[in-house]
Amino acid sequence: MNAVLEALLPVSIFSRVGGIGLSFLTVIAALLGIAALINLVRPGPGPGRISDLLLKAVVGLFLLGFFWICWFHYQIFSQISLELPAEAVAWLNRRLAGSGGLPLYDPASPPRYAIPVWIENEKYYFWFMCTTILALLAHRREGHGRFRAALHLVVAVQVGILYFVADPFAAPLPRFFSEIGPWFSGSALPAGARLGLFMQLYPKMIHYYNAEYMWLHPPMLFLSYGGITITFVVSLFMLVRRDLSLERLGYDAAKMAFFMLTVGMLLGYPWALKAWGPNWWWDPKICSSLMMWAVFSTYLHARLYANKIGMWYFSSFLGIICFLAMIFTFLTSFFFPGEHTFQ
After folding, report:
1. I want to staple 189 with a disulfide (CB 3.0 to 4.6 A). Which of 170, 193, 200, 334 is the partner?
2. Cβ(39)–Cβ(146) under 8 Å?
3. Taking Cα atoms as reference points, which of 120, 113, 115, 60 lies closest to residue 82?
4. Are residues 329 and 225 in contact, defined by beta-carbon separation less than 8 angstroms?
5. Quick check: 148 and 230 in contact, CB under 8 A?
6. Closest by alpha carbon to 72, among 24, 12, 25, 21?
7. What does the angle CA 78 – CA 213 – CA 91 come to, to the nearest 5 degrees?
C-alpha cells in the first residue's frame, strides 16, 4: 500500500486485530463443524448444549468483527479526502456543471469516501454473517437434531471459505486502495494531470462508493442469500422426511428471502440507470438474477399446493434449484464480463 495511506490509516492495526479475531472465529467454527458431523452420524442425541454455545460464540465473533470493519471504514471517511488547490476549483466546477449528475466541488468540504461495509472481500463476511444469524434463529426455533447439525455444518464451511479464500483483514480493500493510491503518491504531478486523475476517481466515488443505493441494494441481496441457504437445508431434509414444522420454517425463510431479493433488485434499477445509463439490461449478473427470481417465485407458488400428491417433494426440489441458481448468479460476476464483474 502507498506509504502516505499507511501513515493516514491504521491499516496494520486493523489487519492484526481482525486477523486474530478471524482466527478465533475459525477455530470455534471448526469445533462447531466437528460437533455437527457427530450429530449427523450418531443414532442418538448429540452434544446439543455444546453446539448451541458454539453457534452463539460464532455469531458473537462475527458481530465483533463486523463492528471492527465499520470502525475501519469510519477511519477511511475521517482521514481520506480528494483535496484540490483553490486555483483549480473554478475550472473544475465549470466542467462538473456540464457533466450531468456530478455534484460541484466544495473546497470547504472536500469529497470523502463513505464506503459501505460490504465491498470486496467484506461482502463475503457480511453474507456469511447474515447466514449465521439466520441459522441461529432457525436453531432456536426448530429442535430437530440433524437439521440443526446441517445448519452448523453450513456455518462451519462458510467460515472456512472466509478464512482460507476471502479474508477481509489480511489485505483490506485492495482494489479500492489501488485506485486511490496514485492520488496520494502523485502530489507532485502537474495541475492538469492531477485534475485528470480527480475526474477518474470522482465519478466512481459518487456513483459507486458513496451511492445511497450501495447501502440498500447489496445488503438486502446478501440477506436474501442467507434465507435461501436456510430454505436449501430444509429442502434437503424434506426430500428424505416429511416434517411439517420444519417445512414451515423453510417456507418462512423463503418468504423473507424473496421479499429481500425482490426489493433489493427493484432498488438496483434506479441505481443502474444513474450509474450506467440505459445500457445495463444485458449485464450477465442482472439476467441471472432475474432467472433466480423466476425460479424462486416458482418455488413459492408450488409450495401453495404442497398438500397435493407429489408436490411436497417437487417444491423441495425447487428449493434446492433456488440455491443452485443463487450460486450461479453469484459466480457470473467472476466468469462473465459486465458491469458487476469482480475481476
Report:
1. 193
2. yes
3. 113
4. no
5. no
6. 12
7. 60
Q: Positive or negative, the Cα torsion across 172, 176, 181, 183?
A: negative
Task: Dig out the grid coordinates for 93 from the structure.
Answer: 466546477
CA separation for the pair 120, 145 (Å, rounded) = 36
Cα–Cα distance between 330 and 343 in angstroms, integer?
13
Q: ∠ CA(62), CA(66), CA(70), 5° rounding?
A: 170
Rg (CA), the chain: 23
- Tell me the C-alpha distance between 141 and 148, whole Å: 10
How far apart CA 284 and CA 335 sit, in angstroms, is: 9
pLDDT in tens, 158-217: 999 999 999 999 999 999 999 998 888 756 667 778 888 998 999 889 888 998 888 998
Q: How far apart are CA 197 and CA 180, in angstroms?
A: 9
pLDDT tens digits for 98-157? 766 789 999 889 999 999 999 999 999 999 999 999 999 999 998 888 899 999 999 999
CB 72 within 8 A of CB 14: yes
Query: What type of residue sits at position 179?
Result: E
Burial of 2 (0-12, 13-18, 19+ CB in 10 A): middle
CB 117 within 8 A of CB 66: yes
Give, in degrees to the nearest 5, the angle at Cα 220 between 219 and 221. Answer: 90
- 7: confidence class by pLDDT, cuts 50, 70, 90: confident
DSSP string, 152-166: HHHHHHHHHHHHHT-
Residues in a beta bridge with 112: 81
Say which residue the cell 478465533 belongs to.
24
Looking up cell 454473517 gives 129
